[in-house]
């Protein structure tokens, strides 16, 4: 049986003192702690404070600093189900009872980065003169086009390409994320064939229109497994200008403490906003994602006072400063998971190898504390009061 413990970690001075008592707690005698790394505590900053980007160039005209995720696609493709499962923790089985979206649904998400999710009805023509195109697309962060893999998708592909071509004049560098959705109902062979066929058709049609190398990414998704969270993680990471700094910090932490894999999760959505640059496998992500559900739900009792969906909760902290957990799991030997809540929005989860981290816990705690201090400079969002969300 897995065993875990959750306890407050309010004694950084104890960890600092204990790191000098036994050389064995360091990964090696020549490996410095993260504090000794020249760029660990002071992340790289540009002369102009970054706002957000889409992986290429900003598409911002409104200037409100809240990038939008636009969920588009044909009717009954699964857009509302995706939004409800990812951002509202709705069980996938209950999405069968969601009503069809008849108007543009706007929601503001308050986390490490404020952003908006707009759910568009599938029957609307957004480029009709009756619509204000600039108002819809002026602050776009990513256009997520959902295609139902279990339905006829030729019309969906045609509308997707029409949308991309219409946006090229005003937003030539827009990132388009295509979710080939509901793949859970397809066999492995048919799923792969469908995915490749959709990619080929989209690229061929755009190429025929003279648009080569379009910035379009494709993902296979389902709300019944972790693939939808994995896809959203990749989409969100393109909106974070500080991503290289976060990856460098996580690489330093992994190297210093001999951590196999480290994820920085958004607690509310279980989207990971950054990971170290070692290869990512879906298995380790699934373990960390499930672990968040267990530990965070327990720590809610005495942890951070989190905002409600309508944003009415106070932003003051109550209870312990953070939650810490160490769990032993049987999976081809003893593997260890280490979780620390960095602030009320983010949690660090580390996957460790067979060697027991108990003997190294003091140095791990200390270096995670250094990482936490550096992250406050990267994301000062956690220190601000939670804004009242915009009314749709």
From TrEMBL:
InterPro entries per UniProt: Gtr1_RagA (IPR006762), P-loop_NTPase (IPR027417), RagC/D (IPR039400)
One GO location term (cellular component): nucleus
Region (Disordered): 1-67
Gene Ontology molecular function: any one: GTP binding
Record-linked SUPFAM superfamilies: P-loop containing nucleoside triphosphate hydrolases
Family, similarity comment: Belongs to the GTR/RAG GTP-binding protein family.
Known partners and oligomeric status: Component of the GSE complex.
The protein's name in its UniProt record: GTP-binding protein
Species of the source: Periconia digitata
